[in-house]
Design brief:
Chains A, B: It is found in: Cytoplasm. Two copies of one chain form a homodimer. Chain A is α+β, with helices and mostly antiparallel strands. Helix content of chain A is 34%, strand content 25%. In chain A, strand 3 and strand 4 form a beta hairpin.
Chain lengths: 297, 297
């Protein structure tokens, strides 16, 4: 693949494996599209698909999957723990290689237009594609969920970006472009959740910390320790090591140490290369020097 | 490419660009072979080619290039600063992905057999392919160089592994399998070369240091500092961070600090992933979590 755009569509079906298989089918065996992973959660009643591809091939596959989901999933009967507002709940596009954020924004709008024209599925544009700053945050956009959407969109500030009415069974979809997320968790040698919460507050953007870091403290009860659970929302600007070292420094005042970390799901290679560059103090390193990068060119 | 074997053949022509182009030609535009880089050095009168490929395609391309080099290069007229013994001086094969060391050893022997059958170019097997421990080290094998080889191979311990006489103009070639080398240099904030040499002695295998580390101290005269210049000969067993941290510890006794490092040439992604795992203390990380690794599968 010359170009790599990642897409992580979430569909509101996590229990019926036959339906899930049909929804995922458009991502299989196509030139220019590669299905990397999909995992369904029965409690959430949701499947998260990870796919990469070139722009046109990816667009066609995503639109096809949205069409299938809108036929197979009836949101009036959907139950699950995860907030949701549509059969296809959210479609983020992420630039990975030879693709710009602007291109992903354009792609998100094309998909939004196509799924309304073809399937009458309306959408909100969110994140970098948002038409207003109040629509950037997915949680804001989705507030009210499927059941509250028909009412919510009557307010002028919540008119959908594409479409004017909620699809009766498929609801509404959030579509947008964003940077890759890295789920990065740091473990501390204490069972005091209050300490974890204080440190999380100190490192996260919301309460005065790092610009591209969301964080909260959670208890790992089986291990008897706590964790700073983070979403790094732009690792190119807030690198992993900076959050890690800041947690170390904040933990010192409580006499607490870092005992490990974990990365959940996929991480772009560049995030790890940047980590090595920092800790080894590598001067003038070019990512072209990484053998696999060169091979992928 | 399903399988990736790297090959870094060195040819004894670094000045005539037309000849270099002909020698490199077999690595271009072939399915299952990808030319990553080649760089010629006029002082060394040598070109170093970096290519990756699948076993059969790579074998055919390498053999073809050896044939062309043996026609174009006349070692009786060769001058250059770098030690050399053949038109094709050395051919290392390196397992990168879905290839074992054993497979690379077998491949090296097949190539050795073919180039003798086709072009009457004899060879020594070296590194992991060596038929005796005295032949593992390339410097030992090449000692005497082209001019001394006809005499050297008269000794029973230096009978070539393939062939019985030196090719009159193409000399003899060293062929073998080895781990990828990482050229990793660490800079110190002193101009005292003696300190660099002491630290190099402490970290390198030869004089009691790390098993897969070669090191020497060199002066970076323009910058007024010194450097520990290392070849990491198996980064999977002696990782980069271990050498780096050991240099830091050894430097402390001289009141000296590390001020940076550099990686010369290509480095396998796994070497950098391992670095991130160490410094961030990442638990249970799978290389399958690296997006680009997943895409390459």
């Amino acid at each position: 693949m010359h170009q790599i755009i990642q897409c992580v569509p979430n569909f509101s079906e996590g229990r019926d494996l036959e339906k899930i298989d049909k929804i995922v089918a458009p991502f299989r065996g196509k030139a220019g599209v590669k299905l990397l992973d999909y995992s369904n959660d029965e409690d959430h009643n949701r499947v998260v698909v990870t796919v990469v591809g070139e722009r046109e091939a990816l667009k066609a596959a995503v639109v096809e999957a949205v069409g299938i989901a809108s036929q197979l999933i009836d949101m009036t009967k959907h139950e699950g723990q995860h907030p949701r507002m549509g059969a296809t709940d959210v479609i983020p596009f992420i630039p990975i290689k030879n693709a710009t954020m602007e291109e992903c924004v354009a792609l998100s709008k094309e998909v939004a237009s196509l799924i309304y024209d073809k399937f009458a599925v309306p959408s909100f544009l969110y994140e970098k594609s948002a038409s207003a700053s109040t629509r950037e945050n997915l949680a804001n956009v989705r507030k009210g969920q499927f059941e509250g959407m028909a009412e919510k969109i009557k307010a002028p500030e919540w008119t959908p970006d594409f479409g004017t009415t909620i699809h009766p069974t498929a609801g509404i979809t959030a579509i947008g472009a964003r940077m890759p997320l890295v789920a990065f968790n740091v473990n501390l040698n204490t069972n005091d959740l209050e300490i974890a919460n204080k440190i999380a507050k100190n490192v996260r953007h919301l309460s005065g910390g790092l610009r591209y870091c969301k964080a909260l403290g959670i208890a790992l009860e089986e291990r008897g320790i706590v964790q700073i659970s983070m979403n790094m929302t732009d690792f190119t600007k807030t690198p992993l090591y900076r959050a890690f070292e800041l947690i170390r420094i904040e933990a010192q005042r409580y006499g607490v140490s870092i005992v490990g970390s974990e990365i959940i799901g996929l991480v772009p290679m560049d995030a790890l290369i940047a980590t090595s560059e920092y800790y080894l103090g590598i001067e003038e390193f070019s990512y072209e020097q990484v053998l696999e990068k060169r091979i992928m060119e």
